Amino acid sequence: MAGSIIHRKRRKLKSEINVVPYIDVMLVLLIIFMVTAPLLTLSVDVKLPSSTARAMQDREEPVIVIAYPDGRLGLQLPGDDNPRVIDRAQMEAMLAPIRAQRGSDFRVMVAAQGDAPYQRVIDAMDVLRRANVSNVGLWTDAGSDAR
């Protein structure tokens, strides 16, 4: 038997990729992203205010302070058709005699031009507070750009 040849069966090499581990990894990643995606959307539930109030029924026209997007302020007195652009100190000086004349029912409405940031409205209200005006309302008009 010394001369006998042992034949071993050689295995043929496989030239294909085993994709089962890649599928397992992809499924794990899919589950991770499905679980974490809802947590990434940080949102706050906001309950928007609603009102059933009717329009103002004053006999007197209110004084209107208009906040413009560039920071200027406009003052529209009763009877005026066009607002006057004035600075903050002039506004305080003009509102003091009107407030003294009308007394405690003196009402000022704050309006803003359509694209004015809300900070401009707050600045206008701050000027009114410094002028000792306590009855302040917000002017809304859906059909106009100026108010």
From TrEMBL:
<comment type="subunit">
    <text>The Tol-Pal system is composed of five core proteins: the inner membrane proteins TolA, TolQ and TolR, the periplasmic protein TolB and the outer membrane protein Pal. They form a network linking the inner and outer membranes and the peptidoglycan layer.</text>
</comment>
<comment type="similarity">
    <text>Belongs to the ExbD/TolR family.</text>
</comment>
<keyword id="KW-1003">Cell membrane</keyword>
<dbReference type="InterPro" id="IPR003400">
    <property type="entry name" value="ExbD"/>
</dbReference>
<keyword id="KW-0997">Cell inner membrane</keyword>
<dbReference type="InterPro" id="IPR014168">
    <property type="entry name" value="Tol-Pal_TolR"/>
</dbReference>
<feature type="transmembrane region" description="Helical">
    <location>
        <begin position="21"/>
        <end position="44"/>
    </location>
</feature>
<keyword id="KW-0472">Membrane</keyword>
<keyword id="KW-0131">Cell cycle</keyword>
<dbReference type="GO" id="GO:0005886">
    <property type="term" value="C:plasma membrane"/>
</dbReference>
<keyword id="KW-0132">Cell division</keyword>
<keyword id="KW-0812">Transmembrane</keyword>
<dbReference type="GO" id="GO:0022857">
    <property type="term" value="F:transmembrane transporter activity"/>
</dbReference>
<dbReference type="GO" id="GO:0015031">
    <property type="term" value="P:protein transport"/>
</dbReference>
<keyword id="KW-1133">Transmembrane helix</keyword>
<dbReference type="Pfam" id="PF02472">
    <property type="entry name" value="ExbD"/>
</dbReference>
<comment type="function">
    <text>Part of the Tol-Pal system, which plays a role in outer membrane invagination during cell division and is important for maintaining outer membrane integrity.</text>
</comment>
<dbReference type="GO" id="GO:0051301">
    <property type="term" value="P:cell division"/>
</dbReference>
<protein>
    <recommendedName>
        <fullName>Tol-Pal system protein TolR</fullName>
    </recommendedName>
</protein>
